[in-house]
Design goal:
- The protein has 26 helices and two strands.
- By secondary structure, it is mostly helical.
- It folds into two domains: 51 residues, Irregular (CD2-Gal4), CATH 4.10.240; 404 residues, no CATH class.
- It has a two-stranded antiparallel sheet.
- Strand 1 and strand 2 form a beta hairpin.
- The chain starts with 10 loop residues before the first helix and ends in a 9-residue tail after the last helix.
- The relative contact order is 0.08.
- InterPro entries: Fun_TF, Osmoadaptation_assoc, Zn2-C6_fun-type_DNA-bd_sf, Zn2Cys6_DnaBD.
């Protein structure tokens, strides 16, 4: 038994220095993270004795055994055969990526909350990667890019880019086949390729604005088109539904960034995928978030009647916007109240008071719940109050227990907040200074920082494209996105809306 560690914990728990419950075939920690759970086996020495009493000692190993000694043999499964094709490094990086990505489980978190904010798309992606080579390539690329950037390891990063190119090539080939193009495999592949953009950072380490934000939005456009091609009927069950639910969040961000209606905001997409599934609080918030791009687009359309002095058309559009806005505000209020009631049911006393707010409970129920609250604040119409809420809580995304999940999901709430303060003459406010300090000083925040600088450029016209790290450039881009730059006829609709919508929300 020489060389066998004294600890009987599985290899993953020993590497992470976590307590292992020693369950077989997989411990609870590995099962939760969907990681391969392996234990160090003790090496036994068997002593064979002959009739004369002499003995010899030999160590049994696989090369000394014949297949017939092992009983009936079954052909290796396809998934097992594919696993043999992977290098040891690829397997290790895959496990390390998911261990680094997933937030650490909070043992005090209520199962009531956990059941409605879980991430079903994670096991879906891993299951598809286990049996589909294109998805596996994309997932390996994502792992190598993320870990390579995290460790400042140029070799891993270069390998990630090579795998990314191969996955992109295979996906493009599959798209030429209508049957393959509508498969879960290709939808998952495009989804993961977009995820790569979040973690690739600036591979050149030069102080320049990268294209990763625009590239990410292009991948999201690709997932939207694939979903449209598949139709809502293929998104009503199993992997198809789980991928659809995940893609809706990115589609909502795309719609708001480009200020246009999402393809997934129509009545068919709001009903057919839910025929056999029940909406969670996450899904209900996405129902509201997916329509925000259309609301921004309605606001943009105000500029044409203003130029034409068409008063009746202008009045009709203003009425349409106000009706939609009031409806949205009521829905957001109802969602918040529902969430607080769920928190009370889970035993969270901070949510039980008559003046309880989401700020009181947002960090009490794990990172899936925290992300929902931050998304709620980012689309709420009471901008002044909730921009401050995001600024004051965004540090939670970058705690060690948040994993890379936190750095990935911090982008949208922080982008909206930076733009709001820049567009309203508060680019040097204490809240902005605090967020900049977080992005500058916390190592994991560099993923978010690079992505924020990149994506700020996408909706800006060529004359305004700049470096968001430069305050004046950010101010000009933010004013344009909010619709308050002087070259536009649009009114400061969303910024002044807080005077119309009650602030007690």
């Amino acid at each position: 038994m020489v060389g066998v560690p004294r600890s009987q914990a599985c290899r993953t728990c020993k590497r992470k220095k976590k307590g292992c419950d020693l369950k077989h075939p997989a411990c609870s920690q590995c099962e939760r993270l969907h990681l391969r759970c392996t234990y160090d086996e003790r090496q036994w020495a068997f002593i064979a004795q002959n009739s004369t009493g002499s003995s010899s000692t030999s160590r049994v190993n696989g090369s000394d055994l014949d297949a017939s000694d092992l009983g009936p043999q079954a052909a290796p499964t396809a998934a097992y055969q594919r696993s043999l094709d992977r290098t040891i490094l690829e397997v290790e990086i895959d496990e390390l990526f998911w261990t680094t990505y997933m937030p650490t489980n909070d043992p005090g978190r209520s199962s009531i909350i956990d059941g409605v904010v879980s991430l079903p798309w994670v096991p879906t992606l891993r299951a598809l990667a286990g049996r589909e080579s294109t998805t596996r390539l994309a997932l390996d690329a994502c792992g190598f890019m993320a870990i390579g950037n995290w460790r400042d390891d140029g070799r891993l990063l270069q390998q990630g880019f090579m795998l990314y190119s191969r996955a992109l090539h295979e996906a493009n080939k599959a798209l030429r086949d209508p049957a393959q193009a509508q498969s879960d495999d290709i939808l998952a592949t495009v989804r993961i390729l977009g995820m790569c953009e979040m973690f690739r950072g600036d591979g050149t380490k030069e102080a320049k604005v990268t294209s990763q934000g625009t590239d990410w939005l292009r991948h999201v456009e690709g997932t939207e088109k694939l979903l449209e091609w598949r139709g809502p009927e293929k998104c009503s069950a199993e992997h198809g539904h789980e991928l659809f639910v995940d893609c809706r969040t990115s589609a909502a961000v795309l719609g708001m960034t480009r200020r246009r209606s999402s393809l997934l905001s129509t009545a068919r997409w709001a009903s057919i995928p839910w025929v056999t599934s029940r909406r969670t609080i996450r899904d209900k918030l996405m129902d509201l978030m997916i329509g925000m791009g259309g609301l921004l687009n309605l606001h943009d359309n105000l500029k044409n009647p203003l130029r034409d002095c068409n008063v009746s058309t202008l009045e009709q559009q203003c009425r349409e916007i106000m009706t939609y806005t009031v409806h949205l505000n009521h829905k957001l209020q109802a969602w918040k109240q529902n969430v607080l009631e769920i928190c009370v049911d889970s035993g969270d006393l901070a949510a039980a008071g008559p003046l309880a707010t989401l700020a009181d409970v947002c960090m009490n129920h794990g990172y899936g719940f925290f992300q929902l609250v931050m998304q709620y604040w980012s689309i709420h119409l009471s901008c002044t109050r909730y921009a401050a809420c995001i600024a004051n809580h965004c540090h939670h995304y970058f705690r060690p227990e948040a994993g890379l999940y936190g750095t990935q999901h911090a982008s949208w709430p922080m982008a909206v907040t930076f733009h709001y303060y820049a567009a309203t003459g508060q680019a040097d406010s204490p809240e902005v200074q605090m967020m900049r300090r977080i992005l500058r000083e916390i190592k994991s925040a560099r993923f978010t920082s690079a992505f924020l600088v990149s994506i700020a450029n996408d909706p800006a016209p060529p004359r305004l494209k700049g470096d968001a790290r430069n305050t004046q450039d950010l101010v000009e881009m933010a004013k344009h996105w909010w619709g308050v730059d002087k070259s536009d006829d649009r009114a400061s609709y969303f910024i002044t809306l807080s005077s119309i919508i009650p602030l007690h929300t």
